Each structure stands twice: as structure tokens, then as C-alpha cells.
Amino acid sequence: MKNLKKIGLTALAGSMVAISAQAAEMTLSGSAVMTYISKSGNQDATVTGSGIGVDKGLTASASGEMDNGIGVSLSTQVNDGTTANAQTSSITLDLGDSGSLAYVQVDLGGGVEALDDVMPTAHEEPSNGLTGLTSAGSSVGTGFVYSNSVGGASISVNYAPTSQSSANDQGTGTGAGAGTSSSSIGITYPVADSGLTVYAGTGTDGSTDGKDHSHDALAVTYAFGPVTVGYQRNEMDDEDASGSDYSAEFMAISFAVNDDLSISIGDQTTEKDGSDVDQEVSGISVGYSMGGMTISAHANEGDNVGHTANSTSEHTEVSITFAF
Questions:
Q1: Residue ranges of E strands in the chain
Q2: What is the pLDDT of residue 12?
Q3: Which one, of 301, 300, 295, lies nearest residue 318 by Cα?
Q4: Domain contains 106
């Protein structure tokens, strides 16, 4: 991506703690996406008008180094949208061989949350854009992420003091969904010279009623030539006796036709404890890159969504992305 503007930056500061970094600069990058969307399931709201729209996002980032050699970086993403998730910010300390520590506001990621769906795809997950789906994946708003590499494995640990998800200025605000603390770990291990990558993660999400949700994820992908196949299983256990437990099974395959064009198909089946109806999701994606432009499309379909018989959701999307 090309830098639009560089601004000299000499300090990153807050009201409680100030970190001064030397030789820092700020860069601005972004993307513009034009999309066409069509929906036709009985659970989907009718798309009125042309179905054509524009999404865009900007990322401002700055980096520098303190006198003790620790690197400091700031990143702020500003995207379309009216919710708190329209803006995600983070401050990261680069600790060298000791890894990195970041505080991420709004969209935490890391840990088991980053392993929500690691199946190969040419564009989007089979669940993207579908309405009313249940999920066995983890989702946490604001907190700390520690990352490091040990013996070839990438390790990510996250911790959220509360499960808040709103953007807070100088620590104000409780945020939507604030509850007990959440923590998890995720490990990605590419087996050398084999094409095999193993993913594993576990953790808990806090909730407003004090009853934690336990999450586990285990996945494997295998690449051979232009083909990559994957299998994943996610589990979610609700400590609340009146809650529901979920387990999800994912399978996918992608094929790189050449350096620019790839296609993929994927399937997801989610079981709900006590329900005889399984939620079934499938999708096909295609992506074609041409310099700074990417043309992508996917068609996703969900049956028995929300574990309700004959409840359907269908989402088709074509997009053109320009990176700058």
C-alpha cells in the first residue's frame, strides 16, 4: 500500500502514562471496496434499491523506538459503520525476542478467538453475510494480547479485564456486554517442509450473568501443490445450566489456478445440545488479483439457521477492492 501522508511523531501519550518514542513517523493507508449484494433466504431482510454500495476503511499507524530499545507502535482503523466496531485502536510494545504485548480496543482477536475459522478460502468464510446463525466461536472486545514464537510455533494469549466492546476514551465507559474477565490461548504450528499446519486453542469468555462460556478449537490444514485442504472442530460449553452447548465441524478446500486466481468451497455443520436440528452452512468463493485491485465473489447458503427447521439464509456478494 502506498503512503498517503507522513507526519512526524515524537510521543505517544495518555493522561496516566506517557511513552516517548524516537524517530517515529505516522503513515496513512487504506482500501476502497465496491460491492453488490443479493439476499434471498426466508430469514433475510429484502435488499432494496440496487444492492450496490461502497465500503472504505483507513488505517493510521505510527512506530518508533524508546531509549531502552523497546519498539512502540500505534494503529487506529476507521471504517464505515455506526457501531463501536467501526473503530479499532491498539498500542503495541515490541519486546524483541520476548515477543510483543498489545492493548487492543474494540476488536481484541488473539488467543482462541483468532482461530474462529482458519479454513482455506479464496474470499470469505461460508458463514459470511448469513442471518441468524449460531456459533461455537469466541468473541471478546477490548483487552491485552501477548504474541511470541517458540520452537517454530506462534503463540497468542489474550486477556480482557471485562468483556466490554465499546471504544473508550481515557478509560471512560463500561461498554456493551461488560461482564467477567475473559482469557484464552491460541497456538499455530506449521510443520517444517510438510505443508501441514496445526492450530489449537482454548479459553473462556465472561458474560454479564457471571456464567462463563468455555471455548476449544482444533484445526489442521494441508497444502500440496496448488491445493489446500482443511478440517476444524470448535466446541462451546455454557456453564449456565439453562444455556446451550454447541459443537461445530468445518471442512474446506481451495485451489490456486495460478498466481492471481483461486477458488474454494467450504462447509460448516453446527450441533446444539438438546436439538435434533443441525445448522448447515456451505459456500463457494473466488478471488482474482490484478496489481492493487482484487475482484472477489462468494455465494453462501445456510439451512436450519439458528437450529430452526426450514429456516434459510442466502447471501451472494461480488466485490472490487482497491488498495492504496
A1: 6-9, 12-13, 18-19, 22-39, 52-65, 71-79, 87-94, 100-105, 143-150, 153-160, 182-190, 196-205, 213-224, 227-238, 246-256, 261-272, 279-290, 293-303, 312-323
A2: 36
A3: 295
A4: yes
Rounded Cα gap, residues 19 and 22, in angstroms: 10
Domain limits for position 157: 6-323
Kindly report, residue by residue over 101-147, the tens digit of the pLDDT.
Answer: 999 887 778 899 899 999 999 999 999 999 999 888 877 778 899 99
Q: How buried is residue 243: exposed, middle or buried, by Cβ count under 10 Å (0-12/13-18/19+)? A: middle
Which three three-digit cell numbers place residue 293? Answer: 485491485
pTM for the whole structure: 0.84
46 Cβ contact partners less than 8 Å away, ≥ 6 residues apart: 39
Exposed / middle / buried, residue 169 (Cβ in 10 Å: 0-12, 13-18, 19+): exposed
The letter for the amino acid at 86 is: A
Task: Give the count of alpha carbons within 13 A of 297, CB side only.
Answer: 6
Terminal CA-CA length for the chain: 5
- CATH number for the domain spanning 198: value is 2.40.160.10
Interval 265-300: pLDDT, tens: 999 999 999 899 999 999 999 999 998 899 999 999
The Cα–Cα gap between 281 and 186 comes to 25
Instruction: Give me the pLDDT at residue 45, please.
Output: 79
Q: Which amino acid, residue 80?
A: D
Does 1 map to a domain? no
Q: Distances from the Cα of 61 to the Cαs of 65, 76, 142, 150, 190, in angstroms?
A: 14, 6, 19, 27, 29
Return the closest-CA partner of residue 287 out of 324, 316, 260.
260
In-domain check, residue 190: yes
Integer Cα distance of 136 and 281 in angstroms: 14
**Length in residues, the chain:** 324
Q: Which residue has the cell 439464509?
A: 313
The number of domains in the chain is: 1
